[in-house]
Specification:
alpha+beta, four-stranded antiparallel sheet, 5 helices, elongated
Length: about 200
Amino acid sequence: MGEKMRTIGYLCPACRKQVIRDRSAFALAASGAVVACDCGKSTLTVDAEEQRFRLSVPCGVCGGEHTAVMDAAHLLEGKGVGLACPQTRQLCCFIGEPYEVEREMERLSLAVDKEVAHENGGDLFVDSVIMHEVLSELKEIAARPHGISCSCGSEKYRMEVRPTYVDLVCADCGARLRIEAATDEDLDRLCCNWTLQIRGK
């Protein structure tokens, strides 16, 4: 029988990507764990104490960082346990079996994407399924080397989500690339791209 594993998941507040990593229960109990996002801008830490764990979790919901203390049995056994953002009551971290973690992280990612759309003045997406698929595809493209860049040379950008499209905005020169997100054709068109480049000013 293989070593028992636990999966740790959170949403990076910097790049909004799901961060999901496996750690052995033995390693967690012995020395804790550090789980970092590939973007290098957020790190979740689990410190092992006698019969409990102290967690420091970057929050993809409010953008802050939360700490929590949890009994070892809760973290190492069962389907999983979640930590909620104290400000919004929205789940921000989940530790447990891989399927449970992936499902909760997908829910969190969609909830945060919708929240971003509301903040940007969009009431509802014209097609929530298409918008979710477009945002997922954009995250995949962004994870590739030079996945999203601007012709001005910058690779820093922000996303503005609207009911029917997503704008990628260069953080340095302010140029925009509009990604339509309302129909199957819009999704197919995006999926044809391995990388995306904003036309710089």
